[in-house]
Specification:
By secondary structure, this protein is an alpha/beta fold. It has eight helices and ten strands. The strands form three sheets. It has a six-stranded mixed β-sheet with strand order 2-3-1-4-10-7, with helices on both faces. A hairpin with a 4-residue loop joins strand 5 and strand 6. The radius of gyration is 18 Å and the shape is globular.
Length: about 260
C-alpha cells in the first residue's frame, strides 16, 4: 500500500510526564490507529552507557537508544502499515500509567497488546486515514525521527511532579529482564539527562510559548512543536481534546 494516508503523531516528554496516558486515550477514540514505543528500541543492557559519576546504567541518554532501528521501523509503518516480522514489543509489558492519578481511567493497568499495534485495518480503501502514534522520551534529538513525524507534541511537567511520579513506579521490563531504579536515580540520572537532551525545547518553554514555531538548534530542526502541560491530572481531558482536533485538522488540510 504505497499510497496509504497516514498521520504520524509524535508524543514526547520526560519519563512520567503523562505522554503514555495521552496515547491510551487516543487509542480509545480513533479506530484506525497504531502505536509504537521508543522504549522498545533500547539497546541491550550490556551496551547501555555507564554514567561516569554514579557508575550506574544510564538508560536516559540518547546513546541508550538504537535510533537507526527506531527510524527504520517508523518508516516501514508509515509506508506499509506493517511491523517487521521479527519485532516484539517489550513496552507492552510495562503496564504502568505515567500519570499520577488513575481515577478517571481505571483500565489503564489492564490494556492488552492489541491496543499498541494492530488497530489498523489493513484494507485498500483509498479514503481511509491511518493514525500512527509515536511515544518516546527522546523523539526530538534525532533529525531522522523528527522527519517521520507530521504532528509533534511535547508533554511538559515540573521537576516535582516528575520526581513524585517516577519514584512511585515499580519495575520496568527490559530485553534481559527487569529494571528497578536505584536510590536517587531520578536526581542523578533521569532529570539531568532529560534537561540536557531537551535543552533546545526547555529554553524556549521558559518564554511561556504554548506552540513553538521553527525551533532550531545547532543540528535539530523542529517545526510547529505543540506544548501540552500535564502537572495536574485534570489537564488530560483538555490535552486529549486538543490533540484530537489537531489530528482532524491535519486530515482536513491534506484533503484540500
Amino acid at each position: 500500500m504505497t499510497n496509504r494516508k497516514v498521520v504520524t503523531v509524535g508524543i514526547s516528554g520526560a519519563s512520567c510526564s503523562g505522554k503514555t496516558t495521552l496515547v491510551r486515550w487516543l487509542e480509545k477514540i480513533f479506530p484506525n490507529i497504531q502505536t509504537v514505543y521508543q522504549d522498545d528500541f533500547f539497546k541491550p543492557e550490556k551496551e547501555i552507557p555507564i554514567d561516569p559519576v554514579t557508575k550506574l546504567n544510564n538508560w536516559d541518554c540518547p546513546e541508550a537508544v538504537d535510533f537507526n532501528e527506531f527510524t527504520k521501523v517508523l518508516h516501514q509503518l508509515r509506508t506499509t502499515g506493517t511491523l517487521p516480522s521479527t519485532f516484539q514489543s517489550k513496552e507492552s509489558k510495562n503496564e504502568h500509567d505515567d500519570n499520577d492519578n488513575n481515577d478517571n481511567n481505571d483500565d489503564n493497568h489492564n490494556h492488552n497488546n492489541h491496543n499498541h499495534h494492530n488497530h489498523h485495518n489493513n484494507n485498500n480503501d483509498d479514503d481511509e486515514w491511518n493514525i500512527l502514534l509515536v511515544d518516546g522520551f527522546l523523539l526530538y534529538v534525532d533529525q531522522d525521527v523528527i522527519n517521520e513525524l507530521d504532528t509533534k507534541l511535547f508533554v511538559n511537567a515540573s521537576y516535582d511532579t516528575l520526581k513524585t511520579r517516577r519514584e512511585n513506579r515499580s519495575v520496568y521490563v527490559t530485553i534481559e529482564g527487569f529494571w528497578v531504579d536505584p536510590p536517587n536515580y531520578f536526581d542523578d540520572i533521569v532529570w539531568p539527562n532529560y534537561a540536557k537532551a531537551n535543552k533546545h525545547i526547555l529554553d524556549k518553554l521558559e518564554k511561556g510559548n504554548e506552540k513553538i514555531e521553527n525551533l532550531n538548534s545547532d543540528s535539530i530542526k523542529i517545526d510547529d512543536l505543540t506544548i501540552l502541560e500535564s502537572d495536574h491530572p485534570t489537564m488530560i481531558s483538555k490535552n486529549v481534546e486538543k490533540v484530537v482536533m489537531m489530528i482532524l485538522d491535519h486530515i482536513v488540510n491534506k484533503k484540500k
